[in-house]
Design a protein that fits this description.
- The protein has 632 residues and is an alpha/beta fold.
- The chain is built from 16 helices and 20 strands.
- The chain folds into 2 domains: 392 residues, Glycosidases (TIM Barrel), CATH 3.20.20; 204 residues, Immunoglobulin-like (Sandwich), CATH 2.60.40.1190.
- The chain has an 8-stranded parallel barrel with strand order 1-2-3-4-5-6-8-9, surrounded by 7 helices.
- α5 links the parallel β1 and β2.
- The radius of gyration is 26 Å and the shape is globular.
- The relative contact order is 0.08.
- The N terminus is likely disordered.
- Bound molecules: ligand 9MR.
- Ligand 9MR binds next to loops.
Length: 632
């Protein structure tokens, strides 16, 4: 009964926003009272009743979502309305939609003061005809900023007026028709260190975020207002920063109702326990959460086993949401793999192989579709759709691509060396305690084993680029050294944060999870891409790569006679790992070198011989090992 109450309350937020707030705050017996009232008043007329009772096998997601009084949506775009299967699938399977691009600033106000609502209105009409709820997305973002705004010069007051007028015009126009808005999107920097750069921050200052919420609330006091971001679903530095910001908003009465957890994941990387913990702490502030942009990507070869694992991911994330009393919607970022943003060039990936959604290119339901229906059916108290064996099969990670080999006994050729000889392409013994000063000099690296890296899957004819690397640790940090031979050091042609790998750069990878067979990234696995561009950027280093924002990295990069040198360190205790160097304790470890002689990368050198095809950024089972060794 209580569980049912929770979903009743959740679904009725649109018309009873304050009841939701009361639900979070009131003691249980008041809750129950409200629940009984609600059940009496509302249960009679839900969308569920519009559909005939059917066997589970044929019930759509929408029908099952309705039975849970729960919003299950998809990002949608009228650009696909000419595709009849798209239209049919969208309206049949989802009870909510989010405009994928049509409500963004650059779409709605392409010229200053001139609004174009045509595309968005098409979507609104569609939602209306098909009785779907619309999640507004988004009012203020650092992307999709029209040229006139990005290149314009505005004083703080002028920019505040621009933001105010945009929000008033858009939210005001759809008042009463759009019950919830992503007011500010992705304002927090990756890694959680303050607000990211954005025209709004530049023109107005950090208080642009709360201003946007106040304006949206004034424009439609009944709309639920969300802050929406990515890589902040579980417990990490970025979600801590989101939490701190919204906690402060709540304390100061800034009108905010919830946090959108975008959920652009890689297959196998979701940490549901962390997501549940994050949802709970936001709930304790009286805030809702919604899964707003779920897709689950596996960049190469989505085999049957991968699609099973993907189904497990969808199932578990949806279950986490349904079991969190403040999680009020689950939205996938698109309907069919065919039109996924991850396949388009504006995603920066253009990967035609990805299959991140619930329907394949022919609109056939994928294993994740049944996984979603199964959780919805079970949660509504109906017969399961999948057997327990089928569910279990979804939580088994596919066999690791490579099984770690047996290493030879440690051996020192040179007795002065502080650790045993590296095992080529498989293991590196890192001596401790050795403290390294990041100063661009190598005197403190004496007697630490060096590995030469001069082989890889991509090398120009007569390649002359290579490097040596070394690693050491003390009680606080792991230190990395890369000494690169490169006749022409190239940097400054690409964005050093997002496209560092297209110019001269070094990559160190660590898997500190204790599971060296992991086939996908999760917290505790990081790729640290460190570009030569840091030579001219000493203050705040550019570091990119999968999960790189999870750990603080210090970098010193200098020119040398032969090319360039990078020294870097990461702490042994961070939000995502806690390691103490002990002899023979192991981490997963990998090293890459990217070389460019012109505009794009033409050299890829790889240390671990398990990775023959540059897959380490997705698959940590292809790393070698870093083995700690007490130096004396
Ligand atoms: O999927 C969207 C893609 O079509 C656009 O080109 C892009 C830029 O506007 O935005 C994509 O959607 C993003 C969403 O609005 C915010 N979170 C990340 C999404 C994927 O990039």
């Amino acid at each position: 009964m209580k569980r049912y109450c929770n979903v009743v309350l959740r679904y009725k937020i649109l018309s009873t926003k304050n009841l939701f707030e009361e639900k979070v705050m009131l003691k249980d017996h008041y809750r129950l009272l409200i629940c009984v009232l609600l059940m009496t008043v509302f249960v009679g007329g839900t969308a569920a009743d519009a559909h005939p009772v059917q066997q589970n096998a044929t019930q759509t997601i929408r029908q099952l979502a309705d039975k849970n009084h729960f919003y299950f949506g998809a990002a949608a775009s009228p650009t696909h309305f000419g595709d009849s299967k798209y239209v049919a699938t969208l309206s049949r399977e989802f009870n909510m939609l989010t405009p994928e691009n049509e409500a963004k600033f650059c779409s709605l106000q392409p010229e200053q003061g001139q609004f174009d609502f045509r595309a968005f209105d098409k979507l609104m009409d569609f939602a209306n005809q098909n009785k779907m709820v619309v999640r507004g997305h988004n009012l203020v973002w650092h992307q999709c900023v029209p040229g006139w705004l990005a290149t314009g010069k505005f004083s703080r007051d002028e920019a505040i007026k621009l933001m105010h007028d945009h929000i008033y015009t858009v939210v005001g126009r759809y008042k009463g028709r759009i019950p919830m808005w992503d007011v500010v999107n992705e304002a927090i920097a990756d890694g959680g260190s303050g607000l990211r750069n954005s025209p709004w921050k530049q023109f107005i200052g950090d208080d642009y975020v709360e201003m946007a919420f106040r304006f949206a609330h004034e424009a439609d006091p009944d709309a639920l207002l969300f802050y929406n971001d990515y890589s902040a679903e579980g417990m990490n530095a970025k979600s801590n920063a989101v939490y701190a910001m919204v906690k402060d908003f709540v304390a100061r009465g800034v009108p905010i109702n919830g946090v959108g957890l975008q959920s652009h994941f890689r297959v196998g990387e979701i940490d549901e326990a962390g997501v549940a913990q994050n949802m709970k702490r936001l709930g304790d502030l009286g805030l809702q959460v919604q899964i707003t942009e779920m897709d689950d990507d596996y960049p190469v070869g989505s085999t049957a086993a991968i699609l099973q694992q993907q189904a497990g991911d969808y199932r578990q994330l949806l279950q986490t949401c349904l079991e969190s009393s403040n999680c009020t919607a689950f939205v996938t970022w698109g309907v069919t793999d065919l039109y996924s943003w991850l396949r388009t060039s504006n995603s920066g990936f253009s990967n035609p192989d990805v299959k991140p959604l619930l329907f394949d290119d022919d609109y056939q339901p994928k294993p994740a579709y049944d996984a979603v229906r199964d959780i919805l059916a079970r949660h509504a108290g109906e017969a399961p759709i999948l057997t327990d064996d089928q569910v279990a099969a979804m939580s088994v990670a596919p066999e690791p691509a490579v099984v770690q080999v047996q290493l030879p006994p440690p051996h020192k050729t040179d007795l002065a060396q502080l650790a045993p000889d590296p095992v080529p392409g498989a293991a590196y013994y890192a001596p401790f305690p050795v403290t390294i000063k990041l100063d661009g000099k190598t005197d403190d690296w004496a007697n630490i084993p060096r590995v030469t890296l001069d082989q890889g899957p991509t090398m120009p004819a007569n390649n002359t680029t290579s490097m040596t690397f070394a690693v050491a640790a003390d009680a606080k940090n792991i230190y990395f050294l890369a000494d690169v031979k490169d006749s022409k050091v190239i940097y400054g042609k690409h964005d050093p944060l997002t496209e560092w790998y297209n110019e001269d750069s070094v990559e160190f990878y660590i898997n500190a999870t204790g599971d060296l067979t992991l086939t996908a990234y999760k917290p505790g696995v990081v790729q640290l891409g460190i570009p030569a561009a840091n030579i001219t950027n000493p203050a705040k280093p550019f570091v990119g790569g999968s999960n790189s924002g999870d750990v603080p990295v210090q970098v010193v990069a200098v020119n040398t006679d032969e090319g360039y040198r990078i020294e870097a360190s990461v702490p042994l205790v961070t939000d995502v790992w806690k390691r103490v160097p002990l002899t023979l304790a192991k981490l997963g470890f990998q090293v890459h070198l990217n070389g460019a002689s012109g505009d794009a990368r033409d050299t890829k050198l790889i240390w671990s011989t398990y990775d023959t095809d540059d897959q380490s950024y997705m698959n940590p089972s292809l790393f070698g090992q870093l083995i700690f060794w007490r130096a004396n």
